[in-house]
Amino acid sequence: MDPVAIAARLLLIVGCSGAALLPSSLGTADSLIAAQPQPVPAVALAGPTPVATARPSATAVVSPPFVMNSQLGLEDGSQAVLEVFPQPAPLDLRFSQAERVPQSPVRVRIPSQDIDAQVVPVGIMPTGEMEAPSGYEEVGWYRYGARPGEPGRAVLAGHLDSRDGPAVFFRLGSLQPGDTIEVEFGDGADGRVFTVREITQYPVDGAPLDNVFGHVDHPELVLITCAGAFGGPESGYSERVIVYADVESGS
Predict the structure, then answer these.
(1) Could you tell me if 159 and 112 are in contact, meaning their C-beta atoms sit under 8 angstroms apart?
(2) Structure confidence by residue, pLDDT tens digits, 69-122
(3) Domain 4-247: assigned CATH number
(4) Between 154 and which of 17, 39, 131, 146 could a Cys-Cys bridge form, CB atoms 3.0 to 4.6 Å apart?
(5) Helices assigned H by DSSP within the chain
(6) Count of alpha carbons within 13 Å of 4, Cβ hemisphere only?
(7) Distance (Å, whole) CA 86 – CA 245
């Protein structure tokens, strides 16, 4: 069956201390990522599974909108809203979207930045919301995207900080080309090692999200977070850090 293009809107709601952060700092997230995909003919994404004339592939890459909801930081308890808009992603309609992808990643290590974190799969809740890691030392992997090491872009997201200080991806922006990222799987499968190719930083309205969520025919690991100055609850963070890494041959 021919793939169906799904246009999606991505909303990141993050909290911080209310002060401007260094460009290498990351966006925080709390317990929920709300997904509200835009329907297209024959496909309506409402709730945890799409209502469709056919069933999507387990290897399909879907880029639903999501909201990372945080209760952190701001003295008045308000939140900052950051908006980016990924390009349409192809969807092969053969299997249920809610089907679990096998060989899920369970841990990510970035030795150069002393990062060693549990990875939790991110799914879609009955409300249409997409789960996010509840712990500030956890990393979320969108399980309906690519599995790290398989063709396609696998996207990992982590928190900036909490009331107690830096969280798991606080040093993400300090990565350098050539640094390694190790991903471990929980089903006995061999792990994968990635080499950082590029570290980029863009204004919120200039982030090339097709390069984050768009289709590729080779394995690519993408780590994404907020950066730049924090402009308050209305404008949020001013920039995005996007890290690209390629799988090492033989890993």
Answers:
(1) no
(2) 433 444 444 443 333 334 444 434 343 444 444 578 999 999 999 999 999 887
(3) 2.40.260.10
(4) 146
(5) 210-213
(6) 22
(7) 19
On whether the CB atoms of residues 224 and 240 are closer than 8 A, the answer is yes
Three-state DSSP at 243 gives strand
pTM: 0.63
Q: In the chain, where are the structural domains located?
A: 4-247
Handedness of CA 127, 96, 83, 201 (dihedral sign): positive
Structure tokens at 248: 């090492």
Q: Which residues pair with 165 in a beta bridge?
A: 162
Q: Name the E strands within the chain.
A: 4-6, 10-14, 32-34, 43-45, 50-52, 80-84, 89-91, 105-110, 115-122, 129-131, 138-142, 152-158, 161-162, 165-166, 180-185, 192-203, 219-230, 237-247
158-159-163 Cα angle (round to 5): 165
What is the CA angle 96-99-105, rounded to 5? 145
First to last CA, the chain: 32
pLDDT tens sequence across 110-169: 999 999 999 988 766 576 544 667 788 999 898 778 999 999 999 898 877 777 888 888
Is the Cβ–Cβ distance between 251 and 193 less than 8 Å? Answer: yes
